[in-house]
Design brief:
The protein is built from 3 helices and 4 strands. With about 150 residues, it is an alpha+beta fold. It is elongated.
Amino acid sequence: MTENLETKNFSLKRIWKVSIIVAVVLGILIATCPSRQHHCDSIVKIMSEMLQKQVKTLRSEYKAIFKEVMPDEDSQHLNDVAQSLIDMVEPAIDLILVVKNYGIFNVGYFVDETNGRDRVSIGFLGMVFTKKSEFKSDYSMNASEIE
């Protein structure tokens, strides 16, 4: 009889320990679930990096075609255009981004009337992971097209 009681106490203690661990892990996941603004910032950062990469490509293609470095004035205009595009992207993303919260994680979607919704980011533990393939441009502009 005492052996049966000891076994029950042991299993109850074990259940309590596992329950406490699960509750702590769930609490951490819930507390660190990123906000909608974190999703926006992550997407803007990715788009900014891709735009800067495109600017670098245009400069190198310009050099390859014209055998000289892009003039400082033109390079500055290119930087200004890139920056103004980045400045316009953030409010646009804010309009079409929908973040669904599932408690321990959340998912960001771009929603529009023609394509429906596309998943673009997943957030948990305070981090946002973006689907970079959604932000690749459909075409690549060459410096030869600038002429």
